Amino acid sequence: MIRYEGTLYRPPSEADSLILQATIGCSYNECTFCAMYRDKRFRVRKLDELESEIEWARANLGPVSKVFLADGDALMAKSAFLASLLERLHAAFGPLKRVSCYASPQSLAVRSVDEMALLRERGLTLYYLGIESGDDATLARLAKGVDSMEMVRVALKAHEAGVRLSTMILLGAAGRARSLEHARASARVVSSIDPRFVSTLVMTPVKGTPLYEQSQRGEVDELSPLELARELREFLAGLELSGAVFRSNHASNYLALNGTLPRHKPDLLAALDGVLAHPEHAPFRPQWRRGL
Questions:
Q1: pTM, two decimal places
Q2: What are the structural domains of the chain?
Q3: Is 139:148 a contact under the CB 8 Å cutoff?
Q4: pLDDT tens across 211-252, in order?
Q5: Which of 103, 108, 146, 261 is geometrically suited to a Cys-Cys bond with 127, CB 3.0 to 4.6 A?
Q6: Which of 161, 132, 168, 123 lies closest to 17 in space, CA to CA?
Q7: 221: cis peptide before it, omega within 30°?
């Protein structure tokens, strides 16, 4: 059977995927807001363990078309390991629609374009990249380990390798004072990267993180749903993309919006203008329905 160590996380779009825990934890694990892997020490699992789990899935789960490689930073594993794992997945399930993983800026910096291109040819075609912000002051506050220029540089390596990117921006990450700067700078960075998918989450202090400790000391502004809607509008207004799917369907969001950019950009902005003009009628998700 498939064995999972600790709590398992995956993007919303991987709900129907086979989740294979190729690595444990996150190789970086320093982001101030993230509690997902603080109880784990990063390591790469043994290939024979994974091969046994793949065989179990082949025998018991029926057709598998998508696979997500957990945990937080599977791309940090050596490319030879990942190539062997991909070969085993395709041997077990035939042609797969998609294999994907989270990718940190640090792992994108480590992997060469040639390595990523080879893995793409073997089926690893999508990376989820948490940009969080394009504002350097906010990135430093979040301890992402890179500035905005480095974020763009490493993301464009994946583009050069032919890998699709799904990028995430963290609404509210800059607090109230830098909200608009965060939104505008994030739009510039995402536009420079030009990913295939763009999504938003809302920064939420979680126990066990430096952000939570800062929040307890009164050092964190948690924006209201209306302030977050204003920030989201500023972000969307600044985006210039060749073609991307936008979603704010993660459970942390107060507003669930979706569309294709640039086609639906006017509609999304109009919807947000309506929220800002008449907040009393806004379809904000109630607090009890929000989550991580």
A1: 0.95
A2: 12-278 (3.20.20.70)
A3: yes
A4: 999 999 999 999 999 999 999 999 999 999 999 999 998 889
A5: 103
A6: 123
A7: no
